[in-house]
Known about the structure:
The chain is of the alpha+beta class. Helix content is 22%, strand content 31%. It has one domain (3-343): Jelly Rolls, CATH 2.60.120.
Amino acid sequence: MAKKGIENLWREVRELSLGTETDRLDSPPSPLHFLRDYVSQSKPCVISNAIPHWPALNLWSDPAYLAGTLSNDLVSLHLTPNGSADAVTPISSDDGGDLCFASAHVEKLPFPEALRAVRSSSSKGEEKKVGYLQQQNDCFRTEYSTVAKDCDGDIPWATEALGCSPEAVNLWIGTGLSVTSFHKDHYENLYAVVSGEKHFLLLPPTDVHRLYVQRYPAANYNYNRDTEEFKLEIEQPVRHVPWCSVDPYPSPEREASERLKYPLFFNGPKPFHCTVKAGEVLYLPSMWFHHVSQTPGDGGYTIAVNYWYDMQFDVKYAYFNFLQSLSYESSSLNPVLSWREDEDTESGDSDV
């Protein structure tokens, strides 16, 4: 496909379907409205007044309530030196620029101890250790089942529209230091914020070439409690993970070089941006790329619960696989490589 054709596609999906801003609804839609106007069109939206009856909205901003209610529960704490787990990271500070796909150090701790580690992250100006509760894999119904009564087990109008119950429900607790890199998930995602705010950058599946997906060796942080140091270790045997290379918010020192390195992202249509506040729900369609940051609420953290519903592997999925299989170059110096997802999986599904 010609370069012009792919670039026209980015523009046309916005003009014909998506517009320039994420839709905001004042109240939950009917199942028919949701299915017709958002799911079938693969179009995100933010729904206000979506969960006013949840006890969690009033209770979870108090760390004492959560620590007391979950006092006997072991949970999975994710630790990184910089708040970026499941992200493309330099293998070392003096390695000449080699990169890897880095996952967090994970350890099981009593919830009160894990929550203290998360909250203390925000007080470390040098970001020496950042904790995030982000286990996924249906963690809300396993590790956090003691507080499950504080939320609904599903999003009723979404369940009716999608014709199934959530395959997984996950809980997320972090501070403003935790940032999730661009990625996509093969789920229809209903993402409910309980405390604080979540900030999303969104790109539709048609924009896949703008994210410079490449294959990186998988690595894991290993944290030593005695020395309080992290060591990044490449998995053995070596396994490669396809992941998005672009950081949409590079440091001032890196901004000029990043713009030259990734012109399709920085010079193309702007990503959709939306802030989801406590009490609101984001519908994030399957295979949409998303980057997530957060602002803590009254408890000193941000809390969200998300519901993953199975996506339909229909013609939309076939179209996307065809599009991402096309090699495309923005210039002779900046190739966008095609890849085959069946050669490896996108492990380490990140935020949402």
